[in-house]
Request: fold
Amino acid sequence: MIFFTNRPVQSPVEEIKAELQMLKAVSISKNLSKTEETIICRIKERTKELNLNNITRTKAYLDFYQRHPEIHWAFLAHMVSRNGGWSMTDLKGELLSRLLSKKEKVSYFSFLERGNWLIFQDAYPQLLLYEESQKRKEPLFKLLGPLNISIFMEGMWNYYWKRQDSALLTIGLIVNEQNYIQNRVIQNQLYMKGVFDTFEFEIQDLLSFNQILFPYKLYGATRLAGQTVNQFKSLDERIQLGKRLYAILFDHDVLSHAVDWALVHPHTASRKDYWPDIFNDVNEGIPKLKYQIKLSACKKKSGASRIFSPALMNAWRDVKHEEAAPGDWFKSFKVLENLHKVEAPQVGNIEFDYCKTLERLELAALAKKITSIMD
Reply:
C-alpha cells in the first residue's frame, strides 16, 4: 500500500489545486534568459537523441532511475516500456505472424510506436529539467511551459520540490501521460479505424497486450508480477491501471528484485529476455510448416523448438515521427480526483493468466491457415 506522510494541514490535492490556480492566474508569456534558452535547447536535443526507438527510450528511463531513484515513475516507465517493446515484436513473432495480415501488423505497430514516442517526448524533458534543477539547487519548472509540457505538471513538480512526495508525483505523471495520449493516439481517427475497430477481438483475446508483465528473480527463478489490461480505450481505466501497476512494482517484495532483474537483462524487446527456455530470438522452426503446439503448462515440450520472438532491431525499422499536436490537455480541476492514492492489489499469479494467453495463441496459430509468415 502507498502511504502519504508528513502532510501539512492542507491536503495534498488542495495544495496542488491552489498551486495550479496561481499558475493559471499568472500564465503569461515569459522572457527567457540566455541560460534558460540554453537549458531548453539542450533538453530538446537530448530527448530527440534518445527517442529513436523503444530500445533507446526504455534504456533512458532505467539510466535516469539509477541516477535518481527518488523519481519512482522512471522505473515504472522503464518496465511498462519493456512491455510495449514485447508487444511490438510479438507482431513479427512466430504466433501472431500466422494470425495477422501485413497491414494489420503495420497498423498495430504504428499505434504502439506512436504512443511510446509521444510519452517519451513529453515525459523525458521533465526528468531532465528535474535533474538540471537538482544540479543548480533551484526549481526550474517554469521552463516546462516553453517545453510544451502541461501546466498540470508544472504544478505537480513544484509541489514535489517542496514536499518530496515520490508517490504523488508518480501518480501525477501517470495522469499526465494518459491524458496526453488520449486525443493524440487513443481517439485519433487513424488508430480508431486501423487498430481498435479492426483488432477488438485480437486485443482482448489474442494479443499478449492484455497482460503487463514485471519480471523479477526470486529464489533463483524468474517470476512475473503484473496486471491484466481491460477497457484500454477508457482514460479512467488506464489511469487506474497505471496506479495499480505502480503499487505492484513498488511493493517491497517486488521492487528490489525487479530492479536487479532489469539491470542484469538489457532490453532487446524479445520475450527471450525473461523466458529464454520458452522464447528465442532466432527462429528454430521450419518456415511455412503447420504450427505444432510447443508448450504444456507453460513449459516447452520435450523435443519442441522454442517460440520465435525477435529482437526489435531485427523486427522493425526506426520511425520518423511527425511533431506532436500542440495544446494543453489540462482543462478542469476535476482531474485532480485521480491523484488520490490507490489500494495496492495483490500481486497475484500473473504467470497463470499469461500462460493461458499463450495457450490461446498457440491454438489459434494451429487452427489458422498460413497466409503470411515472418514478413
